[in-house]
Amino acid sequence: MPNSDWPELPLAAWKDTYATLHMWTQIVGKTRLALSPPVNHWWHVPFYVSACGLSTSPIPAGARTFEAEFDFIRHNLSIRASDGQTRLIRLYPRSVADFYREFVTTVASMGIEVKIWKMPVEIADPIPFDRDEQHAFYDPEYADRFWRILVQVDSIFKEFRGRFTGKASPVHFFWGSFDLAATRFSGRPAPERPGADRTTREAYSHECASSGFWPGAGIDGPAFYSYAAPEPEGYAAQSVRPAAAFYHTGLHEFLLMYDDVRQAPSPRAMLLDFLESTYQAASTLGHWDRVALNAAGGSHAGPV
Question: What is the pTM of this model?
């Protein structure tokens, strides 16, 4: 029997909504980037899964703060400021250029001053936001399905994060690569990646093992991923769980397709197994101090 908490998300059916929503989130995300104080590993950039969609969390704006939230229940972008102002921008089939114009006008009407770079990042053949009439599709059904998947994954990633006592990222959604991710760190600096630019140099300044969820780009379907940076010798040859997981030589990551998870008797158990086994591979081969870093199922749990 299909699990409604883990809906189908075929790439062919939602790729146009995906592409448009990707650009809309970049417009809002670049606003957070422009106004927020820098945090290590670009942690001042992402969104967070909320009770109705994806939220920027509070963004400083002079003496005030504001928050933008993509609401995939009511299908709008809500912008709320600490002075009580609220604005709504409807989400419907409209071009990126049209959305950009309304967003810029709306933010300015609230007295929020911001200037962003209008060129999308981390995609092929980018079109400036104010000239993008190509991406103009929005199917609320698939936007809702995408968010409902994020709700499930966010909860499981947080459970996995709680098993680790070392430095770990929040569970956050990167609008550049359009993925939900959670990262653990060994505590040691990493050698600089060959050809690293300013972004990757900061993101991978320390040894890490990262996992996440992609909704489909580049791998022909939604999938979970795990990788180690730098990748220790022998990592690709490791046997990880579940049996459906595999190492993608092009991406240099372990993948587990979303459809295998959603059809499992226990999607939670299968996903946790993938997260744990790929972390064990990375941390063992990377000689992490696992005794000090592992929380043995969550040592923080208990009455308070």
Answer: 0.94
